[in-house]
Design a protein that fits this description.
It is built from 9 helices and no strands. By secondary structure, the chain is mainly alpha-helical. It is elongated and about 55 Å long. The model is unreliable at 12-25 (pLDDT under 50).
Length: 178
């Protein structure tokens, strides 16, 4: 028998190994995510770096690597991974959120306000939360009137609950300013 007689068999074998490889990647991804959730950062890092070596274009792997470095307080590396994920998939909101969080923690107010302005166009459903971040950034930049002008249009009950504490803080600051 010749190669062409076994061509279909070779195709099936290749497909089997492809599916097996995909299944292994998926289960490793889930394991890495579980390690992250349980705070086992070193194990999560190891798994996500291995996955990254196999596929450098997967925005979810890049985002999770960013989370690993965020948890290790290596904000520069974290931001770089989030940025790579965004370049691969500009509609991946988790990477946007996490990159914004890095800017917030690093107190990079001009960058955060610009970043949030861009994100509003991409994620209009989160407009109010992003406007709150812009308003807060303007407060930190001492651009009080611009921040207050944005803040006045934000209603607390329109925000996700995780933003309520920030809303209360910003509201208090703008009330003090009059």
């Amino acid at each position: 028998m010749r190669y062409r007689d076994f061509k279909w068999l070779f195709s099936i074998i290749l497909l089997f190994f492809y599916i097996l490889s995909f299944s292994e990647t998926k289960s490793n991804f889930e394991l890495g995510a579980q390690f992250l959730e349980n705070g086992n950062i070193e194990q999560a890092e190891k798994i996500f770096l291995e996955l990254y070596e196999k596929n450098q274009q997967d925005c979810m792997i890049l985002n999770n690597l960013g989370v690993v470095f965020f948890m290790k307080k290596d904000y520069t590396k974290a931001y770089n991974y989030f940025e790579k994920a965004i370049k691969i998939n500009p509609d991946y909101s988790n990477a946007y959120y996490n990159a914004g969080l890095v800017l917030f923690i690093r107190k990079m107010w001009p960058e955060l306000s610009e970043f949030a302005s861009v994100a509003i166009k991409r994620f209009p459903k989160q407009r109010k939360e992003l406007e709150l971040l812009i308003s807060y950034s303007y407060y930190r930049l001492r651009r009080f009137q611009e921040g207050a002008d944005i803040f006045i249009n934000i209603k607390k009950d329109e925000l996700s609950k995780e933003y309520w504490k920030l809303f209360d803080w910003v509201e208090k600051k703008y009330k003090i300013l009059g």
